[in-house]
């Protein structure tokens, strides 16, 4: 795989993931109370497709870094491990939630979650996302596959994810911003990641060659 192909593949898979995630996030805010099963299953289905594209984005990014500068291929490998780890953990939590919805004939009470999923969506997901974004940001800074400011922004988003690790001490009520599965910990951080992914992917596709430094 050459550098041009790696940039296009990374940009395309990232763009597909971003579009799917941006379609999913608003579904969390449609209902103020308990959402019906159709709403939960719809957003989970879109999320599963998005996570598949995130996995492909992370693996493509690993190849992109290796092609851009073999000296820093290890950073790409780190990102190519942390990204799929995040995707797999989130897919597991989505599967547990979907199973609970399918097995129930009642709307999902937003104050109740499947045991353990709020930790997978919350603190564990935030840690893995921080590792992924941190390695992507470092790779951008070291290889110049994107402008320097993009690397700094990505590293800042990694730190923002780390700030939500202690949320597991603040209950499990989704309506609370900083709860283990609160809307800030999950939906807001997911929305920020979606916009970051969209911008990064468009930048890779608009500039088939790395910017000059």
From TrEMBL:
Keyword terms of this UniProt record: Membrane, Transmembrane, Transmembrane helix
Organism: Actinomadura parmotrematis
Descriptive protein name: DUF4386 domain-containing protein
Membrane-spanning segments: 12-34, 40-61, 82-103, 118-141, 148-170, 182-205
């Amino acid at each position: 795989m050459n550098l041009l192909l790696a940039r296009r593949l990374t940009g395309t898979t990232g763009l597909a993931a971003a579009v799917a995630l941006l379609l999913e996030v608003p579904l969390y805010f449609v209902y103020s109370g308990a959402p019906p099963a159709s709403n939960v299953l719809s957003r989970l289905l879109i999320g599963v497709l998005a996570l598949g594209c995130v996995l492909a984005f992370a693996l493509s990014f690993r190849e992109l870094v290796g092609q851009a500068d073999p000296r820093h291929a290890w950073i790409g490998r780190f990102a190519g491990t942390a990204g799929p780890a995040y995707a797999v953990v989130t897919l597991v939590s989505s599967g547990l939630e979907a199973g609970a919805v399918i097995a129930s004939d009642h709307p999902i009470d937003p104050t109740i979650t499947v045991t353990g999923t709020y930790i997978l969506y919350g603190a564990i997901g935030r840690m893995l996302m921080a590792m992924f974004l941190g390695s992507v940001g470092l790779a951008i800074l070291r290889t110049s596959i994107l402008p320097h400011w993009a690397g700094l922004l990505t590293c800042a988003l990694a730190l923002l994810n780390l700030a939500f690790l202690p949320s597991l001490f603040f209950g499990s009520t989704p309506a609370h911003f900083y709860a283990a599965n609160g809307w800030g910990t999950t939906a807001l951080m997911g929305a920020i990641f979606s916009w970051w992914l969209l911008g990064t992917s468009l930048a890779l596709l608009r500039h088939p060659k790395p910017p000059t430094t």
